[in-house]
UniProtKB/TrEMBL annotation:
Reactions this protein catalyses: (S)-dihydroorotate + H2O = N-carbamoyl-L-aspartate + H(+)
Protein name: Dihydroorotase
GO molecular function: dihydroorotase activity
Family to which this protein belongs: Belongs to the metallo-dependent hydrolases superfamily. DHOase family. Class I DHOase subfamily.
NCBIfam families registered for this protein in UniProt: PRK09357.1-1 (NF006836), pyrC_multi (TIGR00857)
Length: 425
């Protein structure tokens, strides 16, 4: 195994130091380290963060390899500073058996760019009728701990209760896509002033809030762990705040796009802005940012949702919802939070690693910890060019925007996956 000596780097915003990486772990820190056999990496001006961990990634393999593969999505993740991603189950076939989750897990290992941790479906085929084989997925080589029908809500309260009961035995989590389907039939965008003006059917905030309120009560009743995907409204934050104050075992994530973009974007009729849950309002953004600072929202998760051109560059009503996220998330976080490195490390690495139970991830670089880390240059501003992204898809809402921060290098267990801002393989 190789050795790397990163010199003069700020670890999570601290005073510059050196970091020696050897045999897959951080072998030493301190100023003036010497290691003649190590490859030198000049860390001057750079910030070292624990490798980012994404709780919510769509990799599209198996089934839509034209939009993304485990390998292309892993490369996008590494370039975004990630060392682990949790792959959502809404593939084709759905990841609802031990066989499919093991396939995704193996493809992740073969790509070798990030740790790919499969999420299993809650219900067979995401159909919301019968529980999938949760135990077999948990016992499989993929060791699934998070289950989600993401893309769909587990709308049936009895099924949701049974799923929560089932995963309690192995401290698993149900990650809910909170959307009361009866309240969002035909919905195209956030229900509010802009949808009224544009004449598009609205997706009301209460469709999300009602499910979160129900599910925190179910989780409290059962004593199980619940995670809420892509929280998007101020009302959801209030429900979560109350639940957490009561000690309910609930965690929550917000996406970069819900922290930055509003429903006004729909007025462009550019389907790149169509997403579930929809972009909301300025006051929702303010509440989400405050909740993130406070810890009512635990995690920034990308909901990286690649879509092929034919599924996205069409009329708004026919376009699939979802947008890319992995290669821009850290920049959006920097833009929204500023250089609050400890908060960024907490919300984008430590907390998601803890929630997903990824023991090798989410550790600040310190002697003895697995060398899963990323180096950020906060001084660089870069313009997002969709054609330059590593993702197979192009549906970024940040095209031609200039954003702060650039990932210079990413290390997975001591080996670089990104160096000089370029993927190593
Ligand atoms: N977020 C989206 O708009 N789309 C996701 C599904 C989901 O996260 O609900 C997708 O799979 O494309
Ligand atoms: Zn979802
Ligand atoms: Zn999703």
């Amino acid at each position: 195994m190789s050795a790397y000596l990163i010199t003069n780097v700020s670890v999570v915003g601290g005073a510059p130091t050196d970091l020696l990486i050897r045999d897959g772990v951080v072998a030493g820190t301190g100023t003036g380290l010497a290691a003649p056999d190590a490859t030198a990496v000049d860390g001057t001006g750079l910030v070292a963060l624990p490798g980012l961990v994404d709780l919510h990634t769509h990799l599209r393999e198996p089934g839509r390899e034209d939009a993304e593969t485990v390998e292309s999505g892993s490369r996008a993740a590494a370039l975004g500073g990630y060392t682990a991603v949790c792959a959502m189950a809404n593939t084709s076939p759905v990841a609802d058996t031990a066989g499919v989750v093991e396939q995704v897990w193996r493809l992740g290992r073969e790509a070798g760019l990030v740790d790919v941790q499969p999420i299993g479906a809650v219900t067979v085929g995401l159909a919301g009728e019968h529980l999938a084989e949760l135990g077999a997925m948990a016992d499989s080589a993929a060791r699934v701990r998070i289950f989600s029908d993401d893309g769909h809500c587990v709308a049936d309260p009895r099924l949701m209760r049974r799923a929560l009961e089932y995963v309690k035995a192995f401290d698993g989590i149900i990650a809910q896509h909170a959307e009361e389907p009866r309240l969002t039939e035909g919905a195209q965008m956030h229900e509010g002033e802009v949808s009224t003006r544009l004449g598009l059917t609205g997706w009301p905030a209460v469709a999300e809030e009602a499910i979160i309120a129900r599910d925190v009560l179910l989780a409290e009743h059962v004593g199980s762990r619940l995670h809420i995907c892509h929280v998007s409204t101020a009302g959801s934050v209030e429900v979560l705040r109350q639940a957490k104050a009561r000690g309910v075992r609930v965690t929550a994530e917000v996406t970069p796009h819900h922290l930055l973009l509003t429903d006004e974007k729909a007025a462009t009729y550019d389907p790149v802005y169509k997403v579930n849950p929809p972009l909301r309002t300025d006051s929702d953004i303010a509440a989400l940012r405050a909740a993130l600072a406070e810890g009512v929202i635990d995690v920034i998760a990308t909901d990286h949702a690649p879509h092929a051109v034919e599924d996205k560059e069409c009329e708004w009503a026919y376009a699939r919802p979802g947008m890319l996220g992995l290669e821009t998330a850290l920049s959006i976080a920097l833009d929204v939070l500023g250089p609050q490195w400890d908060l960024i490390a907490e919300r984008m690495s430590r907390a998601p690693a803890r929630i997903a139970g990824l023991a090798d991830h989410g550790h600040d670089p310190a002697p003895g910890v697995p060398a899963n880390l990323t180096l950020v240059d906060p001084a660089v501003r870069r313009t997002i060019e969709p054609a330059e992204l590593a993702s197979r898809s192009r549906n970024t809402p940040y095209a031609r925007m200039t954003l702060p921060g650039r990932i210079v290098a990413t290390f997975l267990r001591g080996e670089p996956t990104v160096l000089d801002g370029k993927a190593v393989k």
